């Protein structure tokens, strides 16, 4: 079975939510929609306090090339534009706060296109639709999709990969979406292929999702036979785009490079579905599927949630926290970020909400001891780095050496920390080193 070099196979824990169909959560009474919920520059507000909006109304426009539009996720009135705690960024960021009205009315611009209208759209028109809809990568990276499907003119793109690997333990949102909306994902892939000038696409799914593989394969044979469903081995981080490219095509994206350099564009399955909805229904990205799971939540679910819904409201909808819940992570256990507040909002990149009670921790929680020089972290590093050495340099703030050893190429997947017998917080030290490097670069830039 195809896969990449390195990687690990942590316990999956997907049984908590994998058989829970996607449930639509009712719109909350208030949403808090950050203007920074994508890679790049924060969006610029186009509404003011007191304005009336509907679900799908543009509330902030992109600023610059790497940015994304933001839309209201409910109908109501803008209550405030102020700083609020963010699930990814370390400091509060500006957000639009909207109080729900009496009805959940959609913006009148949201209306379906006919198949004939869709067929007539040019690649440039589709890129504009995707940009206006505020679509970003829904696998977690949240990179603006319109940019990703606009590779440099000299890039020879020959392959589109739809990423349905979903390799993070606990998470099942993509699995459920592939089982329940396969036609939408396949049509989204066809639209993306048209933009890139391709005749087909690969849909990669890990082999621990047999129902998704069967259902998507059957749908592809009816909707678009040029979509080839590939089964990849269940291994973490199989869903990272560089590893997926290596597994499927045997091509290696160069250090510091991007997939277009080896002729490939990778899009998450949820992103493909969002593209389909934007093109076929004129629906902007104002809601997404989120897995709410873990031993610390009363009722694990897969929920279709409005962007800006607060974690506390999602928890309440899932029956509340169990008394022994100890930790809340936004995302999966490997690359997710621990949260200190339940007032944090769902953003476009929120794939999961994980609540742990200490009984299913994936990482050692014992005291760190000295590195044993066992080499386990080197053997499993999917980026072919030497994590123990890079982490040591970061710990002692030898930043130039850390850069020479490739700290910037670390994707922070956490595989090294998972296998370390000494309990070394390898990925945490590497993150610390990156933070220092970025801070130093910012200081130099300001001095110029």
UniProtKB/TrEMBL annotation:
It is found in: Cell membrane. GO terms for molecular function: 4 iron, 4 sulfur cluster binding; electron transfer activity; metal ion binding. GO terms for cellular component: plasma membrane. InterPro entries: 4Fe4S_Fe-S-bd, 4Fe4S_Fe_S_CS, Ion_transpt_RnfC/RsxC, Nuo51_FMN-bd, Nuo51_FMN-bd_sf, RnfC_N, Soluble_ligand-bd. Keywords: 4Fe-4S, Cell membrane, Electron transport, Iron, Iron-sulfur, Membrane, Metal-binding, Repeat, Translocase, Transport. One of its GO terms (biological process) is electron transport chain. Binds 2 [4Fe-4S] clusters per subunit. SUPFAM superfamilies: alpha-helical ferredoxin, Nqo1 FMN-binding domain-like. The keyword Repeat applies. [4Fe-4S] cluster 1 binds at residues 371, 374, 377, 420. It holds the Pfam family SLBB. Its EC number is 7.-.-.-. It is a peripheral membrane protein. Belongs to the 4Fe4S bacterial-type ferredoxin family. RnfC subfamily. Part of a membrane-bound complex that couples electron transfer with translocation of ions across the membrane. This is Ion-translocating oxidoreductase complex subunit C.
